[in-house]
Specification:
Largest sheet: 3 strands, antiparallel
Strand content: 5-15%
Radius of gyration: 18 Å
Strand order of the largest sheet: 1-2-3
Structural class: alpha+beta
Number of helices: 2
Helix content: 25-40%
Oligomer: single chain
Shape: extended
Distance between the termini: 45 Å
Amino acid sequence: MTISLCKHSHPVQPPAGTILRPGPCTGCGITWNQVQDELRRQEDALINGTAHEGTCPDCAETRTLLRFQTPAQPWDDFDYEPPVSFLCIGCYNAAAVAFNEATAALFDAA
């Protein structure tokens, strides 16, 4: 496993890249998609690595609980950290759907 200490900088001006398809990092050459894959892998490792048996606070069932945290939004304060909760898989999915619907409703209202 290699660890990069690069503070990735992906160009978004043609011909090096675009807003929708940023170019490779100017420091280490890693592509935008590789960075996004690594971030998803780290998020999955955090969710699965902190899973434990317990009672779900939403449905009160004793099950394996997964870490749930809504993503930070552009309108959140800079130092705001969304709250973390541990939910069973059914409540985790329901919370993710509810968050996605609430976010979509904000954009539909605009």
